[in-house]
Amino acid sequence: MSRPVIEPVEINPARVRRNGALYVFEHQVRVMRNYRSSIIATAIGTPFIYLFAFGIGIGTLVSANAGLVDGVSYLTFVAPALIVMSVVGIAAMEFTYPILLGFKWNPFFIAMNAAPLSGRQIIDGTVLFVVLRMAIPSVAYFVVMTLFGAVPSPLGAGVILTSILAGLALGTPIMAYSASITEDKGQFAVIGRVVVLPLTLFSGTMFPLDQLPFFLQWIGWISPVWHGTELGRQFAYGATEPIWLTVIHVVYLVALAVAGWRLAVRIATKRLDT
Amino acid sequence: MTVIAASELVKRYGDFAAVDGISFEVAPGESFGLLGPNGAGKSTTMRMVGAVSTRTSGSLTVLGLDPDDYGPEIRSRLGVVPQQDNLDNELRVRENLLTYGRYFGLPRRLVAERADELLQFAQLADRASAKVDELSGGMKRRLTIARALINDPRILLLDEPTTGLDPQARHILWDRLFRLKEQGTTLVLTTHYMDEAEQLCDRLIVVDKGRIMAEGAPAALIKQYSTREVLEVRFGSDQNAGAAGKLDGVGERLEVLPDRVLVYADDGEKALVEVTRRGLQPLTSLVRRSSLEDVFLRLTGRSLIE
Question: What is the pTM of this model?
């Protein structure tokens, strides 16, 4: 059999320069389809389990003893934190192993780069994909929160955006790090346990930040989880803090997300040029 | 008219020059080879031509464009078969072609049609929905070549296309590459197999330690640097050097290797008669035609595969 005659098509590099990140996104979505049932099951199951355990279980105990927290029921208080914790967990996962995977274990980043795609497009497309990956559980969480009656404010859907923003703020610096290493000697497990977990627990999530001893409160201030959670609370049950603090949350989260993203582009571009 | 023009091409990593001033040109439709041992700088050269590795110095144009400024433009018209297969193991065979075709901005419908045609070409049509991990080494290689053809490239770059394959898989692959060559695809390939270079390359450069040792058509190089035939005689590990001492004047040139002595002569049988006439009794003897291996040995004093 001879090689099929292929119609000459117009290869259009300008289109690739414009849309390259979308092609990377498309690739990753196709891979994700293999895991869709587990992703959907986890996205829907997780909020039920957590809201029931923390909101109803611990919430009943808290309400009986302390009454309202931050002016609302414990369920309402904790729900914006749970959604951020869930989304940040996805970010910490998607921005670690899959990055090293693409450079090394299953080097599709190298293949993309040998085709016309640039390091910037590969990183941009990956970030876009992780946004989708975070949006799935985030939307599911919001729906379940609403079912539990944990979202009194009409602006409540804002928690979807703020949780994704928090995921990016924590995730893109981790992505930059993942793009820089050549071997996983357990660093990713360390990131999960020593960075993500404490940032999650000491970030005004299960209890207000001012309940922590003063010398530990700085953890909240540097933590995207705290900024994201507090921002989400403003949407979920109304403004409970001065506007300047809300602005700080937004600026801090955006700054971190953009800085990590840009660093990742730089590292990936350099790494691909060998 | 050339599709690749490299002049004094250099790539340094710190103090080490992986490519140390290489110049060559490739004409459209030509099948051009880089022959040399591992570490000669072949793959580095290929990555520079493939517009993924920035050169340290020298000039380079691919399809008339400078890779420093027009990387995506060049890469969108190349097909690349890397030394290490980098198929996506999380996707199935046909899906690998579908996603790769999209990297070039080609419409989905067109990519799907081509994927099916190329699976036929690569003799993988019945494996379209298999997992990549289930394929043999030769099949993976063919899939990588099919993938590289999805954009109908002007130049196909093949880095060690058959390394690690068994002889049968190599012959299937050579057959496919030969068809592409017949259809006028420009092929640039690196190899450390002389038989591969002889079969597939119209013209090649012999590369060692980042420099070009010789350039020409395989037959011309053999003619220039070797005799028509070679007599290989073995006297046993400890005896080769001693025996060689008595072979002065037999053939045009001698090459003493640890395991055998090579006698370069236009008539190998005649040389063998002379060897036995001098009272030497080789354990084994073999007369063969000269190959690029002999050219390399002559130029560098070393074998291609070490």
Answer: 0.92
